[in-house]
Structures are given as structure tokens and as C-alpha cells.
Amino acid sequence: MLTRRDIRSALLVALWFIFLTFPLMVIKVDPIERLVTWRWLNMLYVGAGSFVLYLVSRAFLAHSEKKRQRITGGPARETAGIILKTMRKREIALPLLFGLSV
């Protein structure tokens, strides 16, 4: 179920995407004609699209979590693979990362 926090986060995500895509989606410059075109409707499309996609992704994650709880009979446990377990050990991870970077 979507909460107020999800909707507030969706609004923030939409505003962030509007801010990031503003120069590319809203402003169109024609240097030959020396003309600047403002496409404000594109900004609305980006905001609405990112808002809806964020809410859909959150609803999908909530549905997946409920399904996982129903199958396992309880809350989902995080299981870390061998790579994550290895990377958590500093004495192994640092030399490994150094060797890979060299």
C-alpha cells in the first residue's frame, strides 16, 4: 500500500527529474536562426512520467514483498552471497580491490 511518504518521495523524484532534464527537454536553441524555443509542456510530461513511474515501482516492490512474505511465512531475510561476505572482511577486501585496480 502506498503511503504519504511514498507520495512525498515521488514528488521529490519528479522535481529532481524536472531539474535535471530542464536544459535538454525545455530549452531548444536554434543557433542559425538565433531563436530560443521554450517547450514547457515537455517539463510537465517529465514530471508526470517520473511521478507515475516512481509510484508504480514502489507499488510493485510492496507487492513483491507481500508475495515473498506469503511464500516464506514471515518477513524476508537478506541473504548475502559469497562475494558480499568476502567484501565485508577488510583484510581481504582492501588487498583484492588494490590488486584489481592495479
Quaternary structure of the protein? single chain
Tell me the structural class. Answer: mainly alpha
Question: What is the helix content?
Answer: over 70%
What shape does the CA trace take? flat
Number of strands: 2
Extract low-pLDDT stretches.
none
Query: How big a fraction of the residues is strand?
Result: 5-15%
Biggest sheet strand line-up: 1-2
Q: Kindly, what is the distance between the CA atoms of the first and last residues, rounded to a whole number of angstroms? A: 48 Å
Radius of gyration, in angstroms, nearest whole number = 22 Å
Largest sheet: 2 strands, antiparallel
Could you state the order of secondary-structure elements as H and E? HEEHHH
Number of helical elements: 4
- Mean of pLDDT: 87
Features:
mainly alpha; 8% strand; 2 strands; 102 residues
Description:
There is one protein chain. The protein is built from four helices and two strands. It has 102 residues and is mainly alpha-helical. A hairpin with a 4-residue loop joins β1 (27-30) and β2. The longest helix has 33 residues, at 40-72. It is flat and about 60 Å long. The chain starts with a helix and ends with a helix.
